[in-house]
Amino acid sequence: MAGTDLRNRDGLTEQEFLAKYSPGDYKRPSVTVDTLILGMNEDYSGMKILLIKRGDHPFMGCWALPGGFVSENETAHQAAARELQEETGLSGIYLDQVYTFSKPDRDPRTWVISIAYLALIPDLREVEGADDAADAAWFDLRFTDEKIEISNEEKGVQISYDLRRETFRNGAMRYENYIPTLTGEDALAFDHVEILIEAFKKLRKEILYNDQAFCMVEENFTLPELQAVYEAVLGHELYKKSFRDMVKGKVSETGRMKQSKTKNGRKCKEYRMSECEEELR
């Protein structure tokens, strides 16, 4: 292998250098994963977010995104999938990396870097708190350009943030981001509202060309259900004809009729994702 026989300025080969190397000479951060899990409510009129109630310090009793520490012999993706299974019982769902959060003071315990993931599900499965989560529940989520509202009437929880747009520069590029301000007593733990914002921005940006919407409907669906997913994510209504032209090459009729789950839904033609699109997903 190239470089293994070369000697550095101290006269050491790579093997000799690695034998003497001491990882403790450098302070290292702990690495965690946190996952934003999104689905549609029963009548496709809005989105749901899955939160867990923390059962230990820090932020004990606060609602948070599911997550945990990455183990030594696993990838971040494997850790995110494992934590989902351990804390909520969910497995086998869409999971995509969003961003790395590395503010030095983001965790009061120690220096912790978190790799954030986005998960999408086609139905609201029953969840319960497991591992170190005291509880788990689905919350209504409303995300606009001015506000984030997260609520669960049964749990008596209302989490609300006002959003302010701010422009940042990266070299010659300019981009906008949302700056959240808490407006109530309940808050998400850690910097999880920032993870929510980044994940939602990524989904909005990609859903029109990456087909994530198909991960939020059942295998067989109606076009009103699929359109409702796009509209919930994008935050605005789509013209029926424009929407159908957009998905024309991505869907195939099953030959059956299906009662649409959308509000005041009626029987419609049933569709599924086209085989060529399924293979690419």
Automatic annotation (TrEMBL):
Pfam families to which the protein is assigned, alphabetical: NUDIX, WHD_NrtR
The domain of life for this entry's organism is Bacteria
GO molecular function terms noted in the UniProt entry? hydrolase activity
Q: PROSITE patterns of this UniProt entry?
A: NUDIX, NUDIX_BOX
InterPro entries per the UniProt record, alphabetical = NMN_biosyn (IPR011213), Nudix_hydrolase (IPR020476), NUDIX_hydrolase-like_dom_sf (IPR015797), NUDIX_hydrolase_CS (IPR020084), NUDIX_hydrolase_dom (IPR000086), WH-like_DNA-bd_sf (IPR036388), WH_DNA-bd_sf (IPR036390), WHD_NrtR (IPR054105)
Key words, A-Z? Hydrolase
Residue intervals of the Nudix hydrolase domain: 30-163
User: Which PANTHER family does the UniProt entry name for this protein?
Assistant: ADP-RIBOSE PYROPHOSPHATASE, SLR1690 PROTEIN
The entry assigns this protein to a family as follows:
Belongs to the Nudix hydrolase family.
Q: What is this protein called?
A: ADP-ribose pyrophosphatase
